[in-house]
User: Fold this.
Amino acid sequence: QVMLHERGGGLVQAGGSLRLSCEASDRSLMEYHVAWFRQAPGKEREMVARITVGGTAHYGDFVKGRFIISREDAKTTVALQMDSLKVEDTAVYYCAARYRALSEYDSWGQGTQVTVSS
Assistant:
């Protein structure tokens, strides 16, 4: 497992932008598939975006071109750029990682709150 820490959450108005960062404290993330999930009150956790070891990105249907997941040059960080935020994007956002050969995400951050106001 790898220790993960999210940064960048906060309060923003609808239509605004936030950039979340997922940083590994003790190793490079280049050998890990990394994903962002979110969970809103009373709702199930859902996958927002994920990036493979090879760099391929996948997004939840609700993203619709508004978010971009990317690996930073530092190699210990995966970012999620969120633009055109909507009130319904309000949730706790978590990053997760799984080593390339594993099928389940077994490393999770503590989460960061994103609140979008109308």
Observations:
- The chain is about 0% helix and 50% strand.
- Residues 5 and 76 are 11 Å apart (CA to CA).
- The two ends are 38 Å apart (CA to CA).
- The chain has a mean pLDDT of 95.
